[in-house]
User: Which sequence fits this backbone?
């Protein structure tokens, strides 16, 4: 089953996301700001079905609301997180 969730509290750093990736294909993580602008894009290697974690560091973001979109094959999952200063 494909899923994405925030593991660490949404307002502390680093923000840790956990992804359940059921197929042995790479995933793509894109972060968008509230204006819909892509502020980060990352390819996540996935050589075998597994649960993967990745982190976002504080220095990459200004204060505000962001959306994380994870794409894995034809599937997508979106979750939000907040950056507080």
Assistant:
């Amino acid at each position: 089953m494909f899923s994405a969730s925030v593991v660490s509290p949404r307002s502390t750093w680093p923000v840790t996301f956990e992804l359940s990736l059921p197929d042995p294909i790479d995933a793509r993580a894109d972060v968008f700001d509230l204006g819909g602008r892509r502020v980060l894009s990352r390819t996540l290697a996935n050589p075998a079905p597994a649960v993967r974690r990745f982190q976002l560091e504080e220095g990459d973001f200004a204060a505000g609301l962001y959306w994380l979109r994870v794409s894995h094959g034809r599937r997508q999952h979106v979750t939000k997180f907040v950056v507080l200063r």
User: Anything to note?
Assistant: The mean pLDDT is 82. The chain has one domain: 3-83.
